Amino acid sequence: PQMSIDVVSIFPEYLAGLQLSLIGKAVDRGQLSLNVHDLRDFTFDRHNTVDDSPYGGGAGMVMKAEPWALALEHILGGGSGAEEGDSLPSAGTDDAAVGSKPTLIVPSPAGQVFDQRIAEDLAGRDHLVFACGRYEGIDQRVIDWAGEHFELLPMSIGDYVLNGGEVASMVMIEAVSRLIPGVIGNPESLTEESHEDGLLEYPIYTKPANWRGREVPEILLSGNHAAIARWRRDRRLERTAEVRPDLLEKLDDLSKDDRAALE
Ligand SMILES: N#Cc1c(-c2ccc3ccn(Cc4ccccn4)c3c2)n[nH]c1N
Questions:
Q1: Which residue has the CA at smallest separation from atom 23 of ligand 1?
Q2: What's the whole-model pTM score?
Q3: Cα separation of 243 and 262, whole Å?
């Protein structure tokens, strides 16, 4: 497959949603391999303990180190099925064989904020591993240990607090996998999408032309493609200025027409 993704979680069924729709088809087509691992499979006490109280006191619980190290070693050892059953990996396809480390993404409120640029970077990698924490997070020594075996990326999906890393991992896996060539049905829709060139997308319409007395903007029915392109760009600039002026600040290649639209 072009990319293999492993996810470790105490709620593996949370990730079942990824098997549906786009990603499911890409997996069926062999473009993507997705393996979800239950952290509790790497515990051996009667209660399958994954957490304990924090050294130094404080509220909540901390995820124990050993189960995480065992789960990640299983994945490093090719336990994600990357080797088993596949044709012999030629040089460059198998991280372990050529020595480039797999990427370990650790969702965390204290991570770097995920964005489209990071999604594009991750889409070019061979093997992504997502470590979904719960409770107050994972024993720091796991992160320190993992840094020797993975390229380590603590990542946050935004400035709000979640209860764990599963939802964040699904967000990142969806944003990354749709950038893999062939995974999304219609590649054209990748080029025009918003956040690609820093502007939000323009308003979209489909039949009927008059819906409950509301008309589609005349220009869109005109067939004048240059005028339509200009109208769409103007709407994108207007919307971005209105909703996300911070994105506009970043743009430095606005044309005369662009500035006119922002007046
Ligand atoms: N990505 C991302 C996240 C998270 C996130 C990710 C992983 C974990 C594992 C446990 N918790 C609960 C928790 C709450 C408070 C302080 C520490 N930990 C997580 C929260 N919150 N917000 C984001 N954008």
A1: 109
A2: 0.89
A3: 13
Question: What ipTM was estimated for this complex?
Answer: 0.99
Question: What would the CATH number be for the domain defined by 3-177?
Answer: 3.40.1280.10
Does the 193-261 domain belong in CATH 1.10.1270.20? Answer: yes
> What ranges make up the beta strands (E) of 23-125?
32-38, 51-52, 62-63, 103-113
pLDDT in tens, 207-257: 999 999 999 999 999 999 999 999 999 999 999 999 999 999 888 889 999
- Residues with Cβ within 6 A of ligand 1? 107-109, 111, 133-134, 136-137, 155-158, 160-165, 168
Domain range summary for the chain, segments of one domain joined by +: 3-177, 193-261
